[in-house]
């Protein structure tokens, strides 16, 4: 029996992963004890439930993090709380190292990253990248920039190896769909576009089209489940420098998507035109959407020649595709914002959470 800690369990991805783990009726996760790290008393009450031990945890306090990991005998950390602040990962890696010393058993750390770091507009200069490539880590180091996600990835690989922790990095693509967690139900990007469109009474699209990799939240949660199951079954999935897993189910055609959003919102009287207009500038788009100007093009139009192979080797079979399901569910995306949008962070704030 393992003890698994999910951080960011009140968030969109973390909450959905926790729900997926808790719903397992067979396999090694069913026999494990689930722990959920959250920030507030209110979130503790919301996330606690049958089979889930919620912990209010201050990730800036190494003593508190280490005590939480040791007292609950944590073997696996699924870290979804931040992809950009490596100090949070450092606290958890240090704590897992102490757990390994006490238990004498292997410990594991799964980091949620950001896939746009591997696209050209995200600063990736090497062209096509496959998650099965054996030089991804060295290429990330070789770029030598200060991209916060890339710096976090590099730190995790190096620090985990030094501490004897087995690590994995799942760089999240554009994720959509209604989450299944108990707190935050909505993703970052599409709901923010819808909120901004309602405020401006106009749907805007970027001057350049994009087709970023994407996955429905249910498919993404399934991939986390497959990876943790593989770990618990001692199948030794590739880790550390070779531990990159790209969760790509399909791509999102942004211009077509924004046009469908405009049509769906106009039908509800939420915007003045059934057609999307082009932003007058990327700076204006960043300011209205709450995106950092430095990363607005990468976050809004990035495509990249990014290829997923290792998730499928684990047995991942996404149920959501572009044509038959995603584009046909745009009305549902609008409806979700109207029905369950109780937490309304900016895009950048949500990424930092």
UniProtKB/TrEMBL annotation:
A molecular-function term among this protein's GO annotations: aldehyde dehydrogenase (NAD+) activity
Domain NAD-dependent epimerase/dehydratase positions: 4-82
InterPro entries assigned to the protein according to its UniProt record, in alphabetical order: Epimerase_deHydtase (IPR001509), NAD(P)-bd_dom_sf (IPR036291), NAD(P)-dependent_oxidoreduct (IPR051783)
Assigned GO CC terms: cytoplasm
Superkingdom assignment: Eukaryota
PANTHER family found in the cross-reference section: NAD(P)-BINDING DOMAIN-CONTAINING PROTEIN-RELATED, PROTEIN YEEZ
Protein name: NAD(P)-binding protein
